[in-house]
Amino acid sequence: MGVTQLDDVVYVVCDKCSAVRKYSATTHERLMPDIDVPGLRDPKDITACEQTSCVYVASSECVWRMSSEGRDVARWLTTPQSGRQFSPHTLSVTASRLLVTSYAPNELMLFDRDGVEIRRVSLPEGKAPYHGVESPTGAFVVVHSDTQLKQWQVSEVTTDGRVLRQFSESLSWPDHIAVDSLGNVFVADTGNRQILLLDAQLVVCHVIIDEHLLNKQEPRRLCYLKHSGQLLVGSGNSVATFDLLQVSQVSQLITHGIFQKNYLQIWFRLLDIFAIPLYHLRLHRQHMMQPIAADKVTFQGFSECLLGTTTSLAETTCPVEMLLSVVYFTVIGTGMGWVQKLLS
After folding, report:
1. Contact (CB, 8 A) for 194 and 207
2. CB-based contacts of 199: which residues, under 8 Å, 6+ apart?
3. pLDDT tens across 219-230, in order?
4. Pairing of strands 74-77, 63-67
5. ∠66-70-76 over CA atoms, to 5°?
6. I need a surface site. Which of 17, 207, 241, 342 has the fewest CB within 10 A?
């Protein structure tokens, strides 16, 4: 199930469905009518662009484009100008550029807002891309398989396909990724039924959403909303919304050197022992949209807090809570600095 959001509307595509479903991002109610896409078969992914106010859907033979209101539905990308084979699998948007990950050939294809191909990026031999996104540095972060090493990897590659860095620890059939404004990478570790967060250097890894929070569903599609810190997770038969309330704050603390990088692994181990998540103090699963039939969707609204307290869906984080969280991590970071001095 693919998911994206534009303004206050969540757009969802499902396997074997020829329509794009719409939901209110605030009330979680289904918005009728659906966007009918005649000829759409087996949709693979969906994304949206704020600058063009358009929604894009990938199917096995083309990319569809439509307005956010559901008008002007059309086959937008069929065969690129090069005339080479084209089989879109996943999509991502940066500014007004659309990045298409194609199965045949195994390439990343970057298009401008008019559908003109800007460039193609081929990974080294034996690396087949599943999903790619543009990073804040202008490079591409790609989740892919490595047939030679027989493993899954997340790599940062240049525009000419050169691998700068990569992460491959314990990944199992990862399907999708997303990045925040600091370059941190969310990974849908599908086979392990969890969501990982990697730092921009692809070195530090932490599980931020486990299989229990996912209700044992396999995460297949991600959509990170930078303005709200929410992560939409699409699985085989549901969509869940998570509030990652402290991701940007703690990432900035790491970036500004409050946490010494050499001791982050020790820090992670301490947090794991005491069951305290690093990248967030509170993570809420707000709702689940679970299709029962093609025209009926039910909602299960609930909220879970990793530190053991429960809040209502309407509750938001107050400034005092955010201040306390920053103080909390600052004190811990200072303590780790003292430990570093003692050890040195």
Report:
1. yes
2. 183, 184, 185, 251, 254
3. 999 999 988 888
4. antiparallel
5. 15
6. 342
